[in-house]
Amino acid sequence: MRFYDPKNSKWLEIDVKAPYEKGLIACPNFFDMHTHVRLNGQEDYDTLQKAAIAGGFGSVLIQPNTRPPIATQEVLDKHFQLAIGKVVNYHWTCSFFGQLEPDGKRTLCYSNDGIEYDTKQILEAFRRKKPRLILDHSQFYEVGGIFYEGTQIDVQKRPVCSEAMSIFRNVTLGFEYGFKKFHIQHVTTKLSIETIQTLRRYATVTCEVTPHHLFFTMNDIKNTNFKINPPLAREEDRNALLTAVEQDLIDVFATDHAPHDEKTADFQNAPYGTSGIETAFSAFYTITGNLEKTIEKMTLSPRKVLGLNDDFDFENITVIDPKVEYVVDAKKFYSKGKNCVFDGIRLKGRVVGVKLKGRWVYWDGEFHLNG
Fold this sequence. Notes:
The protein is α/β, with parallel strands linked by helices. It has helices at about 45-55, 75-80, 120-130, 160-175, 190-200, 210-215, 235-245, 280-290, 290-300, 300-305, and strands at about 1-5, 10-15, 25-30, 30-35, 55-60, 90-95, 105-110, 135, 145-150, 155-160, 180-185, 205-210, 250-255, 315-325, 345-355, 360-365, 365.
């Protein structure tokens, strides 16, 4: 079977001893550095594990906005216990506003994702925290707004420029207080890309994009599954994101997997987020048409940003059929979250198998998680 080695940008011929190999290709397991787990009867570490494996992921980084948030050692220990025995490699972030400091092993960095804050709160956090990598959900919560200006839905809007303004505010504040590594989550606008390029003169600033922001615009919003934070932007912004991917100005492909059991039809009160870990590879590959770049930004790049070992072996691989096309049916997701913007969309390329720690744990729709 052909194996794409993203570290050396070359294809290899390997014997993976798979059930069948014709027309399939292999690569290292995907790593998602932007995943949400819910607990409390919603998405848990068991359902997330199945969803992640079905999507080709061997490792995920959990964001801190659980209930309660990952802000204390007691809460973190609970998460550790819940993840014992899982074959997926779980890593965690620490709330930037809590008591915890990353240990660089299982808790990899800070994150402010999913936690509302204002300028004073983030300034105080930069003043008291030890400088480490921070994953930054860049939002001016002070101005409010569910969607961007121009969206044809009758709810409060936020300025399109607000994301770029928040990126500039947060990076420059952090830089003044000794922070030198920033990762900007789910970038959505042309101005944000330009702002990140400017800030790279002063600090290490990486960024990610989600499949839904590459695929859709504010004109595609048709139900509350499309209520996403940050919102879907304009066509000119989507085109700028695609160009930034082509020019490698965007470092990482991330899912922002945000599962919800059910969303109300009310845009004002429905929760934010789309369930996407099972469709992420297919969506990224479909919209970019570039298999090697998609693999690189889902395997090597997140590990580099997080400072993890990027040496790959053939005991941890994901097998893909790059030619198959399918229509997404969210009702069949292994995730408890059926709230997917890609529901009913035809995508190209599908994960067939996943090998973790030397054994096949998933093949052609069947799991082999025991034994």
